[in-house]
Design brief:
This protein has 14 helices and no strands. The chain is mainly α. The longest helix has 23 residues. The protein is globular, with a radius of gyration of 19 Å.
Length: 302
């Protein structure tokens, strides 16, 4: 006999997801505040679920947790989600309670979560299928199908569309990939510290850049013109992906467009800050100034 979560448990689970979003996803959380109030908890639930699994990969693994234990924890999250969707949420962690409720409410395809979890397993150092780097953009996009495109497809039923949903799915997937490539460009130094390099090595090699050069500059705090040229190229690639995604904004339900337009512009503005900082992503973090973030939000509202 299935036992639904108590209303108090579910409300607490959504509050937990909101806190995760506010603490760890500043641009993301700011954009969600422009969404209709009724849709915000679902978006927080998606973020909280993804953040929790990401922490298993990045925080636990870096702390020396054995790969088998990290994989077992991801398996446990997936099993909890499967049981919760089947009507047996007892013992599930808060993010699972919230995301299972969101999946049911908005009729999100659970396959998008399975694909996401498969990509997260690829990120566990020492695990079967682990990739410390990707040679080509095509290889990277194969990973991003689960880590980024699937997130866009999870979001789409919550946001709603004025077209057939299938027509909007390619743009939603492209936007997820555009956001994640922006993260990879901004966080390349932190990723190196974790033993990962997401920027395609063939693209970097065309400018005379390899992992040892990046690591040397990361350790010394010095810049290198070869790295700047390679990153300028990848920023241009990233902007192309934003252009592919942009037509999808007009396909979204009017009630959610201001929030998504704000998210689109907030993330794209990170690329401006990377350029403005001379592509110094190895020794500093590109942040959109608060005043500009406020201006983007105000413009989206208008």
């Amino acid at each position: 006999m299935s036992v639904p979560p108590r209303d108090g448990d579910l409300a607490a689970a959504y509050r937990h997801c909101r806190r995760l979003s506010a603490e760890h996803g500043r641009s993301y959380h700011l954009a969600t505040r422009l969404l209709p109030r009724r849709d915000r908890p679902a978006v927080h639930a998606l973020y909280g679920f993804a953040r929790t699994v990401d922490d298993i990969v990045d925080v636990d693994a870096l702390a020396g947790r054995p790969p088998a234990d990290c994989l077992a924890e991801i398996d446990a999250v997936e099993a909890e989600l499967t049981r919760a969707l089947a009507g047996s949420p007892a013992g599930a962690r808060p993010v699972v309670l919230a995301v299972a409720d969101t999946i049911r409410r908005y009729r999100i395809d659970p396959a998008n979560f399975a694909v996401f979890l498969a990509s997260m397993r690829m990120d566990v150092p020492g695990a079967p299928g682990f990739r410390a780097s990707y040679r080509t953009l095509t290889e990277l996009r194969g990973y991003m199908r689960g880590s980024a495109a699937a997130i866009g497809l999870q979001m789409l039923p919550i946001l709603g569309t004025v077209t057939d949903r299938a027509d909007a799915e390619p743009a939603a997937a492209a936007l997820g990939e555009a956001f994640q490539l922006t993260n990879f460009l901004r966080d390349v130094g932190e990723d190196l510290d974790r033993g990962r390099l997401y920027l395609p090595t063939d693209e970097l090699a065309a400018f005379g850049v390899d992992a040892p050069l990046l690591q040397t500059c990361r350790a010394s705090g010095r810049s290198d013109p070869r790295i700047a040229r390679a990153l300028a190229h990848l920023v241009a690639v990233n902007r192309h992906w934003y252009r592919l995604a942009e037509p999808g904004l007009a396909m979204l339900a009017p009630r959610v467009r201001p929030g998504l337009v704000a998210a689109f512009e907030l993330y794209a503005a990170i690329l401006d800050e990377i350029e403005r900082g001379g592509y110094r992503v190895l020794d500093r973090r590109a942040l959109v100034p608060r005043r500009r973030r406020a201006a983007i939000v105000a413009r989206a509202l208008l």
